[in-house]
Each structure stands twice: as structure tokens, then as C-alpha cells.
Amino acid sequence: MTDGHAHDDATPEPARTSPAGSPVHRTLVADDHPIVRQGIAALLATTDDFVVVGQASDGHEAVALAESLEPDLIVMDLRMPGLDGVEATDAVLALRPSTRVVVLTTYESDDSILRAIEVGASGYLLKASPEDELLAGLRAVAAGQVALAPAMAARLVGRARTGGEPAPRVSPLSPRETEVLALVAEGCSNREIGRRLFVGEATVKTHLLHVFEKLGVNDRTRAVTLALELGHLPRG
Q1: CA dist 118 to 101, 115, 127, 185, Å?
Q2: Do 140 and 204 fall within a single domain?
Q3: Is 103 domain-assigned?
Q4: 2 in a domain, yes or no?
Q5: What are 32-71's pLDDT values in tens digits?
């Protein structure tokens, strides 16, 4: 585990597994408050499935370390000087689309939630969350799911149901993401999709992860169903 700004070792560590054989997620912690940053790192150090490979004190440093350390997961503070968490998330995902980002903050602004999700964050958790809830959210994101703090998820659902404000908009799919999802709708496996599009299976998985994030779903069936409902895919 690094201390401070974490420029100690910019060489990515090899992939590791926990004693139980599960993957160990290489994690970068970005927060402008040293005590908070080190507290999160200390919490992750108590687990077998996370290893903190670096710490960043602002958004610019988070982007630089994400590029050099190649983390699987970034725990990103929302409010940081210079480059905030949303802007840093956008920049990181442009460089490393496979990295998953969890925004961790003390704020519950609906606009901030939407901004973070729109640029590709896979989770949004509160710093005040109990440790077990926080770790559960991080594990969910590391496993390819989307995690929202329960209180904030309830608020977003409430907004959609009351009609007082527009429901959160689903980010538009790129042409390639639409192409991949259309082949999923045909019943193709990832391997078959890769062969038809002349790309690797890992690339197909990455496109599907982006589709899941944009649609706010966790599985292929729901992604296809929602895409049809929203008109992203042709019916029939």
C-alpha cells in the first residue's frame, strides 16, 4: 500500500489472486483529504480481494496514475481541486475504458449523481456508508455491476415515479455498442460476436460493460429489453 501521493512505484504489479483463489482488484484511491484517502486505503488493506496500488490527491494526479499504474478500480472523490471527480472519471475512461470507477463523496446532489453516471462511473457511494456497505458496493462494481448508495437509488427512483422532474436520461449508445447489442439480441455469444465484428472477445466484453453502464442494467437480457423499449434497437 502506498502512502501520500503514491508516486512510490509506477510499475504495475502482476495480476494476483486472493488465498481463496478470487481475483485481487488493483485499486487507486483519489481524494484531496489525506486522512480520508488513507482511511479508505486502510479499509481496503483489511480485505483479501483489493490491493491499493496508488493514491492521488487531485483529479489531475488521478488521471496520471491511472495511466501509469493501470488499476482495475478507482475510488474517486467527487469534489477535488483543479479537476473534479466527474472530469477525472471522464478523462480516465477515455484512456482506459476497462477501468471501473466508483465515485465516493459526502454529497447527495442528484445532478452530481447524473453527471458521474453520464460520463461512465460504475458506482456512486457515500463516505458515511458503513464499512460493510462500502465494501459490498466496491465488490459489486469490481464484478461488473453498477452500485448506487441505497438512499440515492431510492431518490432517483422516486424522481422517476413522481414525474416531478425528468427521469435520468440513458446515455446514447455508440454505433459499435448498438451493433454488439443487436448481435446479443440475435442470441450470439461473445465469441460469435467477436468473429462477426473481427474483434477480440475481450473487446466485446468491454463494449457490453459500457452498454450495461449506460442503460443501468446488469445482464444481457435486460439490456436488450430496455434497448428495445427505448428504441435503440429495431423491433422484429
Answers
A1: 12, 5, 21, 24
A2: no
A3: yes
A4: no
A5: 888 889 999 999 999 999 999 999 999 999 999 999 999 9
